[in-house]
Design goal:
The structure is a single chain. By secondary structure, the protein is mainly alpha-helical. The termini are far apart.
Length: about 240
């Protein structure tokens, strides 16, 4: 169910709003990348979320309307775990399709990781300060930040823009996934854009299946990225 302030807003207003915030996030990231490109994405996203939160307050909206729903009682909290498990299955399927099936059918560029990934995170290997810094970024800008913006905000807003029903929901998930994938292109290249775009499709679909509940996605996102950086820090192959 779309929150009342979102339903009352004109489609033109929603388009302007989405373009403004997505455009600001991308332009801020580009500007910051000229100064400190390794941290441009997280910093620009957190800045965008801060401005978006202020804007939402002005419109009488809270993040609970976009996925950060209350979880009253232990049952609701514990249900986050099996939902995160289901999301993990969707995540694994998408990653396998892109990185294994893709190269097998002739999409060779999907088999090679961009050099930008190693350049960005190479300092984490064996360095406790860098590892702890990125773990902090993982749980703030990635787990919470990316899920709040790309799933919670974008999908909710896009659903208000498109016609009601499954087609509108599918378009909202697809467009948010495309933007999510493009947001990772600057250092991960085409392979990374396809992988993260696919993850965006999986996470966005689960977000709607869970009736706009971001908590399973936030938990899984944070755990996956934490394990990834732990492997880099420990130099596990």
């Amino acid at each position: 169910m779309t929150p009342e302030p979102i339903r009352k807003m004109s489609r033109r207003g929603i388009v302007v709003e989405i373009v403004a915030f997505v455009g600001f996030a991308l332009l801020a990231k580009y500007g910051m990348s000229l100064i400190f490109w390794r941290y441009a994405g997280p910093v620009s996203l957190l800045l965008t979320l801060a401005l978006l939160t202020l804007y939402m307050r002005g419109r009488g909206l809270r993040w609970s309307a976009m996925g950060l729903i209350p979880l009253p009682g232990w049952k609701a909290k514990l249900m986050v775990l099996p939902k995160a498990g289901l999301t993990l299955l969707a995540f694994a399927l998408v990653v396998a399709l892109v990185t294994i099936v893709g190269p097998a059918i002739g999409l060779a560029f999907l088999a090679k990781e961009s050099a930008g990934v190693a350049d960005r995170w190479g300092a984490v290997a064996g360095s406790l300060p860098h590892f702890l810094l990125w773990i902090g970024i993982v749980w703030s800008a990635a787990a919470f930040g990316e899920e709040m913006f790309f799933r919670g905000y974008l999908i909710t807003r896009l659903q208000a823009l498109f016609p009601a029903g499954r087609v509108g929901a599918m378009l909202a998930v697809l467009l948010s996934a495309l933007i999510f994938g493009y947001g990772h292109f600057y250092y991960q290249g085409w392979r990374g854009a396809f992988v993260t775009g696919g993850i965006g499709l999986a996470f966005g679909t689960m977000f709607l299946l869970f009736r706009r509940n971001l908590w399973p996605l936030i938990l899984l996102h944070g755990v996956i990225d934490t394990l990834t950086f732990t492997a880099i820090f420990m130099r596990w192959k």
